[in-house]
Amino acid sequence: MTKFTLNGQPVEVDNPPEELLLLVIRDGVGLKGTKYGCGAAMCGACTVHVNGEASFACQLTVGDVEGATVTTIEGLSSDGTHPLQKAWIDEQVPQCGYCQSGQIMRAAALLSEISNPSRAEIVDYMSANLCRCGTYNRIFKAVERAAREV
Amino acid sequence: MAHRSTHATLCRRGFLKASAGLSFVVGAGGLLSVDAQAAGSEMLKVNPWMTIRADGKISIIFPSTEMGQSSYSTLPQILAEELDADWGDVVIEQLNEDDRTFGNPAFGGVLYTAGSTGVEGYFDPMRKAGAQARDVLLQIAAREIGVDKKTLMTAPSAVVTQDGTRISYGDLAAAGAEGIQIPGADDVPLKPVDAFRIIGHDIPRRDVPAKSTGKAVYAIDVTLPDMAYACIQRAPVEGERPVAVQDDEARAMPGVLDIVALPDAVAVVAETYWSALLARGTLDITWSETSPFRAHGSEATMALYAAEAESPSETPAVWAKKGDASAAISGADTRLTQTYLSDYAYHAQIEPMAAVAHVDADGKGAEVWAGTQTQSWTTNTVMDVLETTRDRVRLNMMTMGGGFGRRTAFVQDYVRDALLCSKSVGRPVKVIWTREDDVKNGVFRPLAVQRMSGGVSTDGMLQGFHHRVATPTVIGFFNPGRWNAVKPNDVISMRGAESKFYSIPDFLADHVITERQARLSPYRGIGAAYTGFAAEAFMDELAEAAGRDPLDFRLDLVEDNLRGRHLLGKVAEMSDWRNRGDRAMGLAFAGYHSSMAAGVVEIALDRNSGEISLKHIWVAADAGLIVSPDNAHNQIEGAAVFGISCALTERIDIEAGEVVQNNYWDYEITRAHQVPPIDVYMAQVNAHPTGVGELGLPFVPPAIANAFHALTGKRLRHMPFTPDRVLEVLNS
Ligand code: FES
Ligand code: FES
After folding, report:
1. Residue A17: domain span
2. How many domains does chain A fold into?
3. What is the ipTM of this complex?
4. Residue A132 to residue B404, Cβ atoms within 8 A
């Protein structure tokens, strides 16, 4: 049994502790907003917050988060109105959308670290996440917009 | 007010409840029939492509599939515009079957989403269908009110009488279509461009909210009751098959349901993907060793294609021809020949291949959830694998985590795998390829060798241009039936080599169809991703030989192409080309099919590491009339970003038939910090739309190569321009 807090709710899972957190979140708990892209810390599609820090869920086992607080895209806001999500819609960022949960979660971690980041800080921070559709410039604009509105 | 009283009158007259709505059957040639749907009864037709319900909701079928290009929003907008619908009333319905009634006109009626053809192909039929439906609504209103149809107009989702009374489309639909004549597709007037309220306006994409909240559902996310998971170990080399499988350990592992032998792979089916992955690691598979592909490596392939480009063993297939290129070149004052190389490239879409299948108990039918670029070929795959008939195939076309050509094949192996696994365990099964599976079993943009020849006169004019491409046929591999119909013309291998935006009196592009030595596929930009590189980098070499500015040399060639000329002028102005001084800037004029893009890039070079970085991209584009301007910008920017890594890093190597690369660490695609500011200008033209999905890519590699020359005086002729290659060129 592993106990942790997921999106504000206490959860207990009986998956083997060495099972990937990403698979437990997606298939065990059933929250599909967190994506699999590479399993290798290279794409960021699986980005979640563990104790507030942006983390690759494909690089953690569920045992690693025993007692921790985990937030996924579903827990970022109750109704999809987090300033970043609104900014994502206002800037019409997503194309295929597959990377965007991870992008938004990484951006949220950035804004909680630096509330008013410079463009260079945004670019640097967001470089952990890939977007094959090439929406990066819109991501930068959306982060700046959200930072203005927080 | 007028609206309310009319509504009351209509109700009193008692026809409001006559039917629950209208369904319009629309074909590629326009509206075929219109049916009133009696309240509470079944639809009269099986194919209601567009439905107006009594509550005012307008359902429009989306005939393509969505992979990020946004045709899920833009195609229905075309119909909604001519229908004069309120976009807020429109509900979009994904077409989930291979119903050729609404096939893609650009692909002979096959349901196929590729090549930036969605808007181009469906623009006319969807406009006409919308206009016909609007005419039917006007007729119903005229019948009900007892006035001449000519006195009526429409406003969003309503017919308006001369005294300003509005009757909603929902009420008219409820009134039924009795006695109505469906006008011919060509007999209804279409709106003039300046009357558009939807086309050309920035209407937000429908799929963006779900994609900003983690709610969009991709094939990899589909979950069914009692679903099992499968992990597939595929043959290391094309053409091999498993001959012996040691699976005792795997079978004994917790959660493992079955080990399934597939024609070219072994699947582990388990209760969870984690169990399947772990069990796969314990399999000991002996593969056959008879495949001729074991003899192939990309270096030898490059050498073979280079030899073929130089002296083809068979007569090359003519792709485009005007005048006599070889005579013009041999008569020129200065003659130039250069060879351009490009490696295999991989799609790298972030969602790897995944599919869910639930095969019926009798094994002769299935429901399938997959993200593919074609309802038609996915249906074919299911029919082939289960040896069944069309009526037993139930598809769910899922939004895709990127396509770029990866999901176009005639036979979709990931769908096949899910079907065979489900059939074997008698439960629904989800197949997921790991990223490594997706790379190792990728289908690639072909390796190509291009031999370019041209001449210039002493007065600095181009005199003959010959573009020879030595590469296999891509269509011949991913859709052999299609190849039989079109050979020797392979648009996937050759697009872009026609240099159609220039007037070159003596021109030849030909295709040396080489032996295929790897699995191939369309890739973003298809042939133009490499033919554009060779054509436009070589154009700069010719300009240099002519002693001309690269812009002036090109302007001579677009005297008959005023729209192209405008783009070159525009991008020169945006980038301040004429005053570039010693900034490392390069120009290219390329495009895709009939869409054109003139681009300028400014680069920086680290001479120690050989790394090129982008400082700025300017692009002026013309794709005819633009349905969704904001999305068009997003597509062009995205393709330019794709073009950066296509030019700089994307490279697949093959050794002894096996793919060398594994994951994003050794197949690098553009990251955030590598993206420069991108300024996009879209020409405003009233011409048939020609597509924006791939337009932003082809100019990027040659513009970078040309900028490199401006900075160093050296030419990059082997794409990608990896640091080791850059250093080699610098030191040459
Ligand atoms: S899936 Fe975790 S970083 Fe790619
Ligand atoms: S929107 Fe497609 S990968 Fe980012």
Report:
1. 2-76
2. 2
3. 0.98
4. yes
